[in-house]
Structures are given as C-alpha cells and as structure tokens.
Design brief:
The chain is mainly alpha-helical. The chain has 21 helices and eleven strands. Helix 2 (19-31) crosses helix 4 (47-59) and helix 6 crosses helix 8 (144-156).
C-alpha cells in the first residue's frame, strides 16, 4: 500500500463518512491490525467516537475484526482494507450498471445497499418500493412483489450475495472474513429466503405534523416479521468487476474489428459465465456449433460466415480469441488474461502518446514489440533522426517508462565493451501508471471539495430557496409568489451557480474516466499475480 492509495482512501472516507471515520480508517491503514485501546491512544479520539467509527467501517465491509494475535483472551483487533475503500470510487458505476441491466428498481436496490453496507431483503424491498412510489403519479404505487422479483434476479445473476454468518469475536476464526464469501465456503451464498411481505409502497408524509405519525409507523414496522430476519445481503463487487472486464473486452473487439465480432465474443463470454472461475486465464472451450446455436436471433449470421469470423478473431494480433481443438467444428476460448494485458498495453501507449507525442509513442511501441534494442537500432527501426531519438529515449527513461539494461562483454563493465539495451517492462510500468491515477483522482476530489467550499454560502442560499419553492408549490401558492421567491437569487449569482455546476460536472466526469483506467490496470496487475502465483 502506497502513500497515494492512503491519501485517496482518506479523501473517500471523509467525503462519505466524515472526518472522524476518515481519521480512524487512515490510522488503521498506516498501522495495520490494532486493538481498540491502541487506536484510542494513538488517534486521541474518544472511546465513543472510535466505537461508532469502527461500527461504520465494519457495516460497510471496509474493516474486518478478528481475535487478537497474542492468543485466547487477547483483545479483538481491527484492520481496514485499502482495496475495499477504493471501491467507493466505483459506486456510481455499480449503480449505473444495475440501472442498465435491471432498470430503476435494480438501480435503487444497489444504491440502498451501497449506502447502508448491508440490509435484509424485506427492509430493502420496502425502502425501494417507497422511493419508487414517491416518484409516481398520484394514486399509483409500486407493488412489493415487483421489487422482490428484481432483487431475486440480482441474486440469481450473483450481483447480490448473502453476508456470511458472523461468529463471536472471541473465537479463533475471523469474525468478518477478509475475502468475499463463495458458494464453496458458504453454500447459502445465493439462496433467496421465503419472505412473507405483501403490500405496496407508501408515500412519505410531507407535512411536519406527520413526524410523530411517521415515527409511530416506523416503530410498528420494526416489530413486524417477514421470515428473513437475520439474513443480510451485500453487493457482490467481484461479480460487477467480471461484468466490467467482459464489457471492456467486447468494446475493444468492436473498436478493433466490427459489431458482429463483438457480438460473437459477447455470446462466448455469456455462455461461459457460470463455468469459468473469476481467476481463470481463459474461458472453458466452446465448440463452433454451440456458439452458432447461442447467437442472438437478431444476428442472422450463416454458419460459414461465423467460421470466417472465428478464424479472423483467432488470427488477430490482439489474440482475444484462441483455438483449443478441432472437435465440434472447432473449439474456441476467450483469452481473458491476454486480453487484459493487451488492453493495459494499449492504455500505456495512449498515455505516452498524449504526454510525449506520436514519435515517442512510436519508440515505445517498438520497444514493446522488439523487447531489447540499442539506441542505433531504435533510430533505424523508428526512422527518427539520431538527435531526436536520443532526446525522446532519455525523456522516457527519466519518467521510468523505459528502462536501460547493461549487458557487458567483459567482467570489468567497461563502457566501450558493454551493450546498452533499451527495454519496456510492462508490469512495473502499469503499476507506476496506476499510482499516478490514484494521485490524479485524489487531486480531482480535492479540487471539487475546494470549489464547493469556495461557493458554500451561495450553495446554501440556493438550497434554501429551492426548499421554499418546493413547499410553496406543495401548498398550491400563486405564480406571483413563486416568481418573487425565485428573484431572491440575482442574475450574477445564477451565473456563478451555473459555472460551478459545469466545473463540478467536469471534475465528476474526469473522476469516472480515470477510474475506468484504474480498473483496467488493476485487473491486469491482479491477473498477472494470479497467473504467476
């Protein structure tokens, strides 16, 4: 874990959970596993606040606790997970994916679970149904059964999973597992409980007088039982990551070849979704006959055309698809790890091109392809004048994008009898770029917070006026009254608010784009770790 990762984790925790939780979380990241007494002593935060902060971190899965390392009876120790905190950055993408696949209901289910860490199915269904009803026309409401159906679909496709049952803190095994539950370690991981929840979503009471009524109803609802008490659900991030990886591969094939090729790869990935393990280097072999039968009916592709497309995919230098045998009209696999390596490579080339120009990118690509070259060979192969090639190589070398390897002819390492070879080590370069991405996102978040802080007074005024307008509209006020309230914000203030909104939208968009690069590079680094491990 690097300083950039800790800084980004601190910013994410502060933005989502507040200053105190961020202080406790970053302290645990830097110090490793610690017991409650040590955390209080070293952070200088009160016992009550530390307990509440740890509860928040555990609730959201960013902290695990286990029996002390000094043996039975030693105090429970807490440890935060950097990877899990960094996933907060990807929350908008998880929610958007759920909306794309399962509509508004799926989007709100994922949003609620991400906001609250983990919830029971009945509690999630009620909350989501109420939120959907609130946005419907007067007289219409959302049935609980529709939300339950969407929830069950998310569980069937493994986007949601049960939280593993928790053992007591004093036992030897970890009370909250650091690794996500799998069907092998926890058989009921994707088993939906039978739930006795019948009814429809209810609208919130808008009047202040209804506060006591709401509290009374909430207390009454808390006492009701629906058959799923004690069974909590959480978002399965690994499943979302597999979906993102597959989408990246499909998108790359569409850009490199065409839409039909990408549809064939999509079909192959969909067919092997259940049979392929998350860390596998390639999918299980599929015959051309199986692929042909599973293609969407809208793609009216003849069998000979499919064979031609498969041959084209196998022969492509990107090697997204490989041939594994001849039976059943030919057996084909999607090379997952090779595809990730090629996508990471394309990202590195793109970064070099954007920062140092197309000629430097040409040298970089040449070194990736040829592995080791002397300076004279680089000049000749890249067809760049000696002086320019030398400058570019030294610039890339100073940025650690290119490495220099010495191969002596004699043991004395005399410069006149030594080969100086330039090379690119893709994995360390990807790791370095990943750290730069963490730094970039942290800078973007700090800039966004600064922009909001500078215009805090104006934002608060705007929110107050919007609240007044909403209450006036609800009570059926005259148009003149509404116009009078709207004019409380002057024209220059409106212009300033619009400018701020544009700036913050740009920063948000940049955060999401950098996160896409982070995801690709993380997937590549992790895939090399599993294939070599």
């Amino acid at each position: 874990m690097t300083a950039q990762e800790v800084r980004l984790c601190g910013l994410l925790l502060r933005e989502h959970f507040g200053e105190v939780v961020a202080k406790v979380g970053t302290h645990l990241l830097r110090s490793g596993a610690q017991n409650l007494r040590t955390i209080i002593h070293e952070t200088g935060i009160s016992l009550d606040l530390v307990k509440k902060s740890l509860c928040v971190l555990v609730q959201h899965g960013t902290c695990v606790f286990s029996a002390g390392r000094k043996g039975p009876g030693s105090p429970t120790e807490y440890q935060t997970s950097c990877d899990r905190i960094l996933r907060i950055l990807r929350y908008p993408r998880y929610i958007y994916t759920a909306k794309t696949l399962y509509g508004d209901t799926g989007e709100l289910i994922i949003e609620e679970l991400l906001q609250r860490g983990h919830m029971t199915m009945s509690s999630t269904v009620k909350t989501v149904a109420d939120r959907l009803t609130q946005n419907m026309e007067e007289g219409r409401s959302m049935d609980y059964s529709e939300v339950s159906s969407a929830f069950s679909k998310l569980v069937e496709t493994h986007f949601l999973q049960r939280c593993p049952p928790q053992a007591g803190a004093g036992t030897k095994e970890s009370s909250t597992p650091a690794t996500p539950p799998t069907p092998e370690s926890f058989p009921d991981c994707y088993k939906v409980p039978h739930m006795t929840l019948i009814g429809r979503g209810k609208r919130q009471l808008s009047s202040e007088d209804g506060e006591d009524q709401r509290n009374a109803k909430k207390a009454k609802l808390d006492l009701e039982t629906h058959g799923d008490e004690g069974i909590y659900w959480q978002v399965n991030f690994e499943r979302f990551h597999l979906h993102f990886r597959d989408q990246a591969i499909i998108s790359a094939v569409a850009n490199k070849l065409d839409q039909t090729s990408s549809e064939i790869v999509r079909t192959m990935l969909r067919m092997s979704e259940v049979t392929t393990s998350p860390t596998a280097t390639c999918t299980k072999p599929l015959s051309a006959n199986e692929i042909f039968r599973s293609l969407p009916s809208s793609y009216n592709i003849a069998r000979p055309i499919l064979d031609q497309y498969l041959t084209l995919l196998v022969d492509d230098p990107m090697e997204f698809v490989g041939k594994a045998g001849e039976s059943g009209g030919g057996m084909y696999v999607v090379n997952l790890h090779r595809a990730l390596a090629n996508l990471a490579r394309a990202t590195l080339e793109s970064v070099v091109q954007e920062r140092f120009g197309s000629r430097s990118a040409r040298i970089f690509r040449l070194l990736l392809r040829k592995r080791h070259l002397e300076q004279k060979q680089v000049e000749d192969f890249a067809m760049i004048p000696a002086k320019e090639a030398k400058d570019m190589l030294y610039t890339l070398l100073s940025q650690n994008l290119v490495q220099l390897q010495e191969v002596p002819k004699t043991p004395d390492f005399a410069p006149s009898r030594t080969f100086y070879l330039y090379t690119v080590n893709q994995l360390p370069t990807a790791r370095m770029l990943l750290q730069n991405c963490y730094k970039t996102v942290a800078n973007l978040i700090e800039r966004r917070l600064f922009e909001s802080r500078e215009s805090k007074r104006l934002l608060e005024k705007s929110q107050r006026i919007e609240a007044i307008l909403a209450s006036l509209q609800a009570s059926g006020a005259e148009p003149e009254q509404l116009t009078e309230v709207e004019e409380m914000i002057t024209a220059p203030e409106k212009q300033q608010l619009e400018s701020l909104r544009v700036h913050i939208n740009k920063l948000d968009s940049a955060e999401n784009q950098v996160d896409e690069t982070i995801f690709l590079l993380e997937s590549y680094v992790n895939s090399t770790a599993t294939s070599t491990g």
